[in-house]
Specification:
This protein is α/β, with parallel strands linked by helices. Helix content is 32%, strand content 34%.
């Protein structure tokens, strides 16, 4: 029997979408209670369940040769992977948001922004020539404008319902964020035949 490919999947919202997509292609898997590893019904994959922000690290170190995650997560790490297959699910957008009706007001110091996406925010606004002061948060960034920590946030937006509930709004969309199958470059070189077989299954 062939050795299965190793695939890291993120906990949370994206996991369910990946599981559904894979099952539609005949690759069926589930995790027993509290277990963090599982095998699919065909024996193609050993699947490892990890925290979303940790996924690129596991793939980078070859603990999992493959992973599925959003471009935002990879951008923040600065790590380089082979992007093998974009998916048409799980996409979102990264936006500049603030209090309703106030718009984007720059002063001599530019913008003060609270975000967990510090690298993206810095690079985006510096690329526009806008000075930016960034306050890093890991939790609910929507609190920052409400409590006066920062007038703006940069965050992922799907429906916008959380923003609306907190009297915030999207000021502008900065980038559309897709979800990709990624590979550790060395792992891809040594397993490219099996990986390409998997890609063909997922594409059909």
């Amino acid at each position: 029997m062939k050795e299965p490919l190793t695939l890291a999947l993120p906990k949370g919202r994206l996991f369910k979408q990946v599981q559904k997509h894979f099952s539609e292609k005949g690759i069926i898997f589930d995790f027993e209670d509290r277990k963090l590893t599982a095998y699919d019904s065909k024996g193609l994959l050993k699947i490892i369940l990890v925290k979303n922000s940790d996924l690129p690290t596991y793939v980078n170190y070859g603990i999992a040769g493959l992973g599925i995650c959003g471009e935002d997560v990879i951008y923040e790490t600065g790590l380089k992977f082979n992007n093998l297959l974009p998916f048409d699910f799980g996409g979102t957008k990264i936006c500049l948001c603030g209090k309703q009706g106030e718009g984007e007001k720059k002063d001599l110091n530019g913008l003060t922004i609270a975000t967990k996406f510090t690298e993206f925010t810095k690079d985006f606004f510096h690329g526009e020539g806008t000075p930016v002061k960034i306050i890093k948060l890991n939790g609910s960034v929507e609190l920052a404008p409400i409590l006066g920590l920062a007038p703006y946030i940069v965050d992922l937006v799907e429906t916008g319902s959380t923003l609306k509930a907190n009297n915030l709004e999207v000021i502008r969309t900065l980038k559309e964020i897709g979800v990709n199958l990624i590979a550790n470059p060395s792992y891809y070189k040594t397993n490219y035949e099996k990986i390409n077989e998997l890609i063909n299954i997922l594409k059909d």
